[in-house]
Amino acid sequence: MTTRFGSRDGDRFSALYAKYYRRIIYFYVRAFRLPEEEAEELAQDTFLKFFEAMDEYRGEAEWAFLETIARNVAFNRLRSLHTAKRSAKTINIDDPDFSQYEPAAPPERDYADRQQDALQRKLLHDAIAELPSGQRQCMQLWLEDFKYGEIGKALRISMDAVRSRLRDAKRLLRERLGDDNELPEDDE
Question: Which residue in 41, 50, 27 sits closest to 77, CA to CA?
Fold first, then answer.
């Protein structure tokens, strides 16, 4: 078997492995509170990554270089454990029961309901267009999901001014549209 490293690199790797293997295990046990068996597995992964990165290693700061690799290995392991995609159930698309896994399409609303919603949206937008300038600007930004602080910053007004303008705008809109037209709820 030939490696891309000479015997000198192999000797250096062996020396570092012997010197730091137990310390890497202790590092995982202490820093990440892992059981020793899992720490040993990660230590093996760490030295594999170190072997792969030996061209980058200049021979300085041995422990710092290994510790950086060890942290990255641990963080990658933690990420992989928390990634839903990797723990999701796999489904063979050739499976005859595949259709049971497809999400159902949302029921289509009838034409009259869609027309009624479109009319209410138009009435709302027309009523917003008739608001005084400051209230209209605040309401438009709020309907675009801006938070009060973001609205204040965008319009260069205080948070109290944003609250006041939105409160007054909603009151005027309810007067013009009646209570039948719902306004989006305020969650701040």
Answer: 41
What tens digit of pLDDT does each residue of 19-60 get? Answer: 999 999 999 899 888 899 999 999 999 999 998 888 777 777
Angstrom distance (rounded) from CA 76 to CA 79: 5
Q: Do 74 and 43 touch, CB atoms closer than 8 A?
A: no
CA distances 39 to 22, 47, 79, 87, 162, Å, are: 10, 12, 16, 22, 54
The CATH label, of 2.40.50.140, 3.30.450.20, 2.60.40.10, 1.10.1740.10, for the domain at 7-85 is: 1.10.1740.10
Structure-block tokens of residue 41: 């597995």
Tokens found for residue 66: 């290994």
Q: Which is nearest to 54 in space by CA: 10, 1, 2? A: 10
Decide if 28 contacts 38 (C-beta within 8 A).
Answer: yes
**Encoded tokens for 60:** 């300085």
